[in-house]
């Protein structure tokens, strides 16, 4: 009843069970299907990523069970393409979550991981050298994309689920890939956990409790980082290096991790993170540290955390048609220019090539565009990514900033938030 109360408290148009056909998801699906007061439709989705071996009997079992329960089933097939050295487990997990994130409507996604899964996750994170966030293992409530998700079985161990399934006559399919000890989780489950339980029978319970404590610690750490982000004047993209220098290094590291997570950017390794901390503590006005497709860049007193955009083609130039959107290269979005000023001469959109001059004020002197950038505090790497609107051979606008003296010229630039 407590689980159902939590499910009903979530705003959704239906409940979707991630159904693999194994023990845990079978118990979850049967339990919810036999509940008469869910308050919203129940569906099942099966992600087929080809790791279960022979698919025909597996798929037949899944279709038979959902049909008998009267639960609509959606099967989503995905293809795994791990890069060299990449874990097939991680790629499969990412593929499943991407498929679930793409579900239509406003589903509440319910996953069937249990207490033993939680204990295994904690140990795997421990062996990877994770901090409190990793050691918190799996949260019981979170989001998959924009969809709310829950794990209502985290307090129940596999043995309890097995006893319940046998008592209720629930049949399940054992995943043959669970026996493949190339996968770290399978090795831990079959070789390590039995030895631990032989000495400490309540290991899953106590390890899960440790994960809960780490989750609590993570919450406190996030509160600290939220306060620190205000202290360093975080604006959604950058923060003050000089303000950050007043914080102890442990809080600097915590803050950078928090800000990256806030932006949805990957956190670097501890070694690379140490280099980022060195960058913000240095007296240098410029510098950068890169990892994956992310960069931490210093310009003057600001440290920017952002994706690395591809270089803009130097020969890009296109004519302006009033009111017509122009797609920009390099993931820079699109731009639209309008106004009667366009009738006064040829108008194009291009990027910086060097030597451009601007007149910020109609009756003021002109100046090199480079100096205008400096006065505005525009970081050097962004200067090449700002589209220029050229009217009658003069720079009329940089990005969506229109200079005086160009009448009713209007520029709208829609660009990715990062």
Features:
418 residues; single chain; 5-stranded antiparallel beta sheet; alpha+beta
Structure write-up:
It is elongated and about 85 Å long. It is of the alpha+beta class. The protein has helices at residues 2-8, 23-33, 55-69, 88-101, 115-127, 132-135, 158-168, 184-199, 203-231, 241-244, 249-262, 270-281, 369-376, 380-383, and strands spanning 14-18, 42-48, 73-77, 107-110, 141-144, 147-150, 238-240, 286-291, 294-299, 302-307, 317-319, 326-327, 334-338, 347-350, 357-358, 367-368, 388-391, 394-398, 401-402, 410-414. The two termini are 43 Å apart.
Q: How many β strands by DSSP? A: 20
Low-confidence stretches: none
The rounded Rg comes to 28 Å
Strand order of the largest sheet: 3-2-1-4-6-5
Intertermini distance:
43 Å
Structural class, please?
alpha+beta
Q: Helicity range of the residues?
A: 25-40%
Mean pLDDT: 90
Structural topology:
Layout: H1 2-8, E1 14-18, H2 23-33, E2 42-48, H3 55-69, E3 73-77, H4 88-101, E4 107-110, H5 115-127, H6 132-135, E5 141-144, E6 147-150, H7 158-168, H8 184-199, H9 203-231, E7 238-240, H10 241-244, H11 249-262, H12 270-281, E8 286-291, E9 294-299, E10 302-307, E11 317-319, E12 326-327, E13 334-338, E14 347-350, E15 357-358, E16 367-368, H13 369-376, H14 380-383, E17 388-391, E18 394-398, E19 401-402, E20 410-414
Parallel strand pairs: 1-2, 1-4, 2-3, 4-6
Antiparallel strand pairs: 5-6, 7-10, 8-9, 9-10, 11-14, 12-13, 13-20, 14-17, 15-16, 17-18, 18-19
Helix pairs in contact: 2-7, 5-9, 9-11
């Amino acid at each position: 009843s407590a689980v159902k109360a939590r499910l009903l408290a979530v705003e959704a148009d239906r409940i979707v069970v991630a159904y693999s056909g194994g023990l845990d998801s079978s118990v979850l699906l049967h339990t919810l299907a036999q509940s008469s007061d869910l308050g919203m439709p129940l569906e099942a989705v099966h992600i087929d990523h080809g790791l279960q071996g022979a698919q025909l009997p597996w798929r037949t079992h899944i279709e038979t069970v959902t049909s008998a329960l009267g639960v609509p089933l959606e099967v989503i097939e995905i293809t795994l393409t791990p890069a060299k050295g990449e874990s097939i487990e991680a790629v499969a997990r990412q593929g499943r979550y991407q498929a679930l994130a793409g579900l239509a409507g406003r589903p509440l996604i319910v996953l069937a991981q249990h207490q033993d899964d939680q204990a295994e996750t904690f140990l795997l994170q421990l062996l990877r050298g994770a901090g409190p966030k990793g050691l918190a293992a799996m949260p019981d409530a979170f989001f998959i994309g924009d969809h709310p998700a829950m794990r209502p079985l985290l307090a129940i161990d596999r043995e309890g689920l097995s006893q319940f399934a046998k008592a209720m006559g629930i049949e399940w399919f054992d995943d043959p890939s669970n026996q493949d000890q190339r996968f770290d989780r399978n090795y831990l489950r079959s070789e390590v956990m039995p030895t631990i339980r032989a000495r400490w029978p309540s290991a899953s319970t106590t390890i899960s409790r440790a994960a809960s404590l780490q989750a609590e610690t993570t919450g406190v750490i996030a509160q600290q980082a939220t306060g620190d982000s205000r202290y360093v004047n975080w604006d959604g993209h950058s923060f003050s290096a000089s303000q950050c220098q007043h914080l102890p290094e442990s809080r600097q590291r915590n803050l950078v991790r928090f800000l990256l997570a806030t932006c949805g950017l990957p956190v670097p390794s501890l070694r690379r993170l140490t280099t980022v901390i060195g960058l913000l503590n240095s007296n240098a006005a410029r510098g950068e540290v890169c990892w994956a497709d992310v960069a931490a860049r210093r310009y003057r007193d600001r440290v920017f955390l952002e994706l690395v955009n591809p270089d803009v083609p130097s020969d890009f130039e296109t004519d302006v048609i009033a009111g017509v959107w122009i797609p920009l290269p390099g993931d820079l979005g699109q731009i639209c220019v309008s106004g009667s000023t366009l009738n006064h001469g040829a108008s194009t959109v291009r990027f910086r090539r060097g030597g451009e001059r601007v007149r910020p004020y109609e009756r003021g002197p002109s100046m090199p565009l480079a100096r205008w950038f400096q006065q505005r505090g525009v970081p050097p790497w962004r200067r090449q990514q700002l589209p220029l609107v050229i009217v009658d051979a003069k720079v009329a606008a940089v990005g969506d900033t229109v200079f005086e003296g160009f009448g009713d010229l209007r520029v709208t630039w829609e660009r990715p938030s990062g």
